[in-house]
Amino acid sequence: MEKQLLITGFEPFGGEKINPAWEAVAALPDRIGPFVLTRVRVPVEFGRAGQVVLDAAGKLHPDVILCIGQAGGRNAVTPEAAALNLRETEQPDNAGRMPQDEPCVPGGENALFSTLPVRRMVQAIRDAGLPGKLSCSAGTYVCNDLLYTLLHAFRGSETRVGFVHVPFLPEQAGDGVASLPLDQTVRALEAAIGAIDG
Ligand code: PCA
Description:
The structure is a single chain. Helix 1 packs across helix 5, helix 2 (about 50-60) packs parallel to helix 4 and helix 3 (about 120-125) crosses helix 5. This protein has helices at about 20-25, 50-60, 120-125, 140-155, 180-195; strands spanning about 5-10, 30, 35-40, 65-70, 80, 80-85, 110-115, 160-165. Strand 2 (about 30) and strand 3 form a beta hairpin. The strands form two sheets. It has a six-stranded mixed beta sheet, with helices on both faces. It contains five helices and eight strands. With about 200 residues, it is of the alpha/beta class. The chain is globular, with a radius of gyration of 15 Å. The structure holds pyroglutamic acid. Pyroglutamic acid binds near residues 21 and 143.
């Protein structure tokens, strides 16, 4: 049976000219296994990121929402196990906001677990011969804000929600900084998506 996958990638931030998350999302095929993909590019702004994806989900009624973000310095494609109800940063977002000690959702639980099979997704990435690793922290910046917002909004519903962080592209990484070529990031995401209902 055909299923709807809302897949998102962030715009560049932090002085970068590209974001491998969006580059990879844009390069994915239109269908992966049972999933028909709908892509959304998301602003790196606390609060607004979640609103943009919630608006898109309100129109599409997806079975799965999978958000992709850049995690500079990581050496693997990393499905995120959980999100914290905390905004905490020393790096302004793309709207110039720098929230500290603030909840993503006032009154929400302290943390929420991803509703995607993250271990199976990691295994599928590795089985494809690519670097995959489970991450237990999505940070406290806009990616975590988006994941928490979505997990909170869809808790107890049929819509499953997850997040995958991807490394820098080689052209972004300075000496000694980990990176992954775009085609490998794309193949890792395909493997991970293929494992959602595997
Ligand atoms: N990575 C950032 C926000 C946007 C992105 O691609 C993060 O990890 O929070």
